[in-house]
Specification:
single chain, 19 helices, about 400 residues, mainly alpha, globular
Amino acid sequence: MLALIVAGEAIFGLPFHLIRFFRPTVLAVFGFSNVDIGELFAAYGVVAMISYFPGGPLADRFSARRLMTASLLLTGLSGFFFATLPALGPLTVLYGFFGATTILLFWAAMIRATRELGGTDNQGVAFGILDGGRGLFAAGLASIALVPFSLALGDDPTQADPAAREAAMRNVIYLYTASTLAAAALVWFFVPESKADADTPAFRPAQVLTVLKMPSIWLQAGLLVCAYVAYKGIDYYSLYAVDGYGLNEVEGARVSVIGSWTRPIAAVAAGFFADRTRPTTAAALCFAVLFGGHLSFAFVPPSSGTAILWANVVVTCAVAFGLRGVYFAIMEEVKIPHLVTGTAVGIISVVGFTPDIFVAPVAGALIDGTPGVAGFQQFFVLLAAFSFVGLACAVLIRRFVSQ
């Protein structure tokens, strides 16, 4: 489980954590706009969507140990190219490559392994521990990354020259590269070899058709879309802290890092709550809180003080991370057969993770198209709308299961 936790977060460090925690510096060093960042994530998202579907049957056939190790090695080695600080074109290609390396061989294999560990009665706990542990690792690594990052920028980050910012960025990239490669070694040596289902065909059309006919699959995919939109929205907290509240780059990064520390507690707590009630009940509660939090972001002006910013960051991060601890636990509640877990995960993920394609471009268009606080307010209204739809999906799934 420890190997799954470390690997499950390390794999996404290079493509996601750099921009999530250090977005203002990424924009400055690479000379990108928020629209450019949107192009990177759109490239990632398109390739990821293509990779989710075949990744499911692969996870139902091949060893998670081998699939995950290969994925981590390919992603980690790409970090050395990332550290050259390439232009937008080559970096877009790299993000497309990340879309394949982090998903095709990795995602469904990790989810299937976690579901098997959880058994019938502890799905919430299993997925909560997985995501909570991932959050602990992410927050700890980001906190460590702040040290070489802030040292390179000096005592006054606002006065740092371009060379200092480039050095700070490279320090962070190398740290995340090392963590990804170390995770590959951890998986190889500590995740046992599995030969379950090794004699079954790699692709079974009848199996896919069985899953596609389940109405609960589509409702769960819709819920996942809304939950993942909320999670992607966290990427903009550091930038809002800098552009909206006037904090410096290190303080802005600290906002996101501290918000990420809610993840270990929130995911595990949501998992325990889900096992004692229902995963859909936990999801509905999280979406309701997100709806209020995003509206508060949208309509409470920065002039009200940073206390409101910190409260919103902590609360919305906590419930967004709580959702990550329960949304795959719903598979047990709706009684998806274990034999088709990988295939179900692939289908749900194809739809559920489409925010990888559209959130960053839409956010970039809103924030850059309406400079200042107003652009961020429009974005937070959009997040609130998705939270409301997610709440509706959770209620509908519960009613469907109760029939």
